[in-house]
Amino acid sequence: MRDPHPGLGEPRGPSFFPGRPRPRTEPPGPPAPAAPPPSHATSHPPSTPQPQPPPPHPTRRPLATAVLAAVLAGGLAGYAAGTLGDEDPAPASAPAARGTGDLQAVAARVLPSVVSVRTDRGQGSGFVFDDRGRILTNAHVVQGSSRVSVELQDGRRLSAEVIGDDPDHDVAVLEPETSRGLRAARLATGARPAVGDPVLAIGSPLGLSGTVTSGIVSALDRSVRLGEGSRGGPRRALQTDASINPGNSGGPLVDDEGRVIGINTAIATLDQDRGGSIGIGFAIPVGDAVESARTIIDGG
Description:
The protein is mostly beta strands and 300 residues long. The protein has 3 helices and 15 strands.
């Protein structure tokens, strides 16, 4: 039977606890009678009021919810079930403030390197990452395919061979039939982003190629389980609030200098029936993705 919710994962994730419940407000009672005027017939000082015990601490009632991690590939391209970790290492020192840059210029510079990836099972995104025109995308986008179609920003469509994939890291490498006109994106393999850095997510959500959304790096080193076929444990991921949706899988997450810092891979949602962005997305760090890609290319 055809999956009624293509591209969505299974409900998983942590519970959360709300803050202290608001104390119940009692309706106001009748006004207290006015104190009688002081008597001039006595010389006793007024009595000192005694302190009252504090009100009882309200009991916190836990409320649990399932967090749904959905892959961003359209159609039936598999899923990435997320296990979200809450332990981020504290930075040794506060990062220096960085300028937002000209995001319009950044988008114009990166878009020519971004492609839409289409398979018999669905649709996702990718980007050119080396001088030979090879393309990085997610393993769950090309799952089960030996050849795919890639559409460039200028409208050209090329056939591409799936050189190989790494389900444990959710990475796949494509080699198009020609590298003519393909330009590699800049990779930030030697830099580590900081929480609060501005970012752009670029890809083809819901088949809308060339879509650009903006946000920030929300957290580093989140623990996320990648891909249905993953044999390993959870992998580290960048968290962002840039809007990413089904079809963004495999597209780049870039910094304000136009350098790729990650591959958009999964989102967390609260409801499988409404599996869109809620501002919690995850990207594979580009250094991890490139290392995996080199292993694939070398036949490892």
